[in-house]
Each structure stands twice: as C-alpha cells, then as structure tokens.
Amino acid sequence: MPKFVKRSSKKAGSSPGTLIYVGKEKTHTSLMHLFSYSKSEIIEKVGKSIGTLKHYIDSGNVNWININAIHESSVIEAIGEMFHIHPLALEDIMNTAQRPKMEDYDDYIFLVVKMITFEDLKNELEIEQISIVLGDYYLLAFQEKEGDVFDPIRDRLRLGKGKILERKADYLAYALLDAVVDNYFTALEKIGEKIELLEDRILNDPKPETLEVIHTLKRELVYLRKSVWPLREIISGLQRSESKIIDQSTSVYLRDLYDHTIQAIDTIETYRDIISGMLDTYLTAVSNRMNEVMKVLTIIATIFIPLTFIAGVYGMNFHGMPELSWPWAYPLGFWSGIVIIGGFLVLYFKHKKWL
Q1: pTM of the full structure
Q2: Tens digit of each residue's pLDDT (9 = 90 or more) over 236-288
Q3: What superfamily would CATH give domain 9-154+164-285?
C-alpha cells in the first residue's frame, strides 16, 4: 500500500462508536504525560494509565494530558469515561486515517490535525495524526507514537516563561496548533531544498531515477495539501466559535495562526506547480538528449551511405570493369574517392553547423 494510506477496511460493518484501531501496527504500551499548571504552580507527572494521574488533575488548573498509545482501546475507553467523551469522538481518535476536522460537543471541542515532520535519515515526510479534546480546564492530546513537535511548549511550562501560564486551556490548544503549523514550514523548507537539487539533476543529467524522485515529491505534496487545507477550516471554525471554552482574547492569536496556515498552503501550491513543470522539463530534456543521439547517428549513416555504395559497386568483381586492370585502382581510385567524398560531407555538415 502507499506510504500514507491507512487500511480502514476492518471497520466495515461495525456499529458507530466501535473502538477499532486503524493505523500502523504498534507494540509499545501506553504512556501519559501530565502538566497541571496555574500562575502559582506547575505539576509534571508521567504514568501508564489515567488512574495513576487522576489524583494530580486539578479543576482549578489547566491540565494537559498527552497520550501516545491510541492503539489500546481499553486506554481510550477509560479516558473517555473519565472525561465523558462521546463514543464517536473516541472512534475518530483511534482512526488515524481521519480527515482533519473540528466538532463542538458543547462541553468540549474535538479537533483532528496532522503533524508533519521531515525525517533527515530517511529523507522523507512523516505524517502523524494528533487528536485534541479541549475542555474548560483540560486538554487531551492523543498521538500515534512517542515524539512530537511540542517540546518547546513543555520547556516554556517548565521554565515558567511566556503567557501560557496566565491563560486558559484554549490558549494551550492554540500553542499546540501553532507548533504543528510552524513545523509545516520546516518540512516545506526541506522539500524546497530537494526541489532545487532535483532541478539541477534534470538539467545536467536526467535519468530514470530522477523521474521516480519527481513522482515521490509529487505524492508527498498531495498528502501535504490534504493535511493542511482542512486546517484552514478548523482554525476559522475556532475563530467563529461561540463556545464558552474559547476566550475572545485567544481569537487574535487564532487570526495570526490562520494567516500562517494560508502561507503554508500557498507554498504547497507553488511547489506543486514547480513539480508539474519539472516533469515537463524532464521529458523535454530526455527528448532533447535522444534527438542529439539520433542526430549523430543520422550524420554517421549519411556519411557512410555513399562510401558503402562505392564499396558495393567495386565488390561485384565483374570482368568487364576497366578499373580492375589498373594497378593503382585500389589505392588511388577507390581510397582517394572514399576520402574525398567522406571529407566533403564532413566539411559540409560543419558548414551547416550540424556537427
């Protein structure tokens, strides 16, 4: 199957709200990371179940719980019971093939976004689904595996820097979305570098391997577009939301985040146009190289046609041919004619700038 395509056929026929994991096979156990903070205190805890962390969850603080084992239905079900999350939202959390979206459940807002990173060792994109449940005093972030782009936010919390300690959970949601969008630009910069190198390869030495790289980049940009375009609708929905969870003071930051998303979309569209043009350039370069080869072969064939004709005539060995009895017929008659005709054709082709 293609790299970014997830198998969802095993959900066919199941009732709505059934917790079935759709994604890459996982073997690691659940791990939950809790930040419970306010202006006066910061609590950081790590546990393997929601039961080990519930004693540290304070409704007077902002509670950020990061869960990285969405393949375990029992873990997702326990969290859903504790925070009264709708079964359809829990089902979407475990379905990593979900389209980015936003849903307002009155008591909380459910978000699905795609976190995109560029793996330098593999030289390719990695796309991971992040599901966010935003409540009045808590934020739950579900991801497929360990490792994300939220470390700068964790560092700000540990150091007590920035406005994040003074704000509610909606500002934390903005900070996470902003980190996701900022990382889009990092991935796009890497793709831009690959495009520049690819352009030089196409112009200097187009090969079949180059065509494969073009198609890989084109496929990556398609999935980037599918991941980023819906995010514009999500942020716009958060801006227009009348939910009590979203504070009006956060709307200013959401507008700025919306502008960044539009900028990322414009960059993706520009790269898609460049890749489409590179495909045409590659085909043109290959065609030009083939024309040059055919041109050289045609010139060689044209030079040897009259020479082959002469060799064929004197290779018939008829007794009535007068040149056969002349002692100097071979060195002067045959070879001088060959050299004169061949030299004349070469000079003529150079005069016409065909050589």
Answers
A1: 0.77
A2: 988 888 888 888 888 889 999 999 999 999 999 999 888 888 888 887 877 87
A3: CorA soluble domain-like (3.30.460.20)
Q: Are 94 and 76 a contacting pair, CB within 8 Å?
A: yes
In the numeric block, which tokens belong to residue 24? 């890459």
Q: Can you say whether the dihedral through the CA atoms of 22, 24, 29, 32 is positive or negative?
A: negative
Exposure string for 237-268, b = 16+ CB within 10 A, e = fewer: bbbebebebbeeebbebbeebbebbeebbebb
**Per-domain residue ranges of the chain:** 9-154+164-285, 316-351
Q: Rounded distance, CA 245 to CA 102, Å?
A: 14
pLDDT range class, residue 226, cuts 50, 70, 90: confident
82 by Cβ neighbours in 10 Å (0-12 / 13-18 / 19+) ranks as: middle
141 bridge partner residues? 66, 132
Residue with tokens 């030289």: 123
Q: Which two tokens stand for residue 81?
A: 């019971």
Q: Residue 245: helix, strand or coil by DSSP?
A: coil
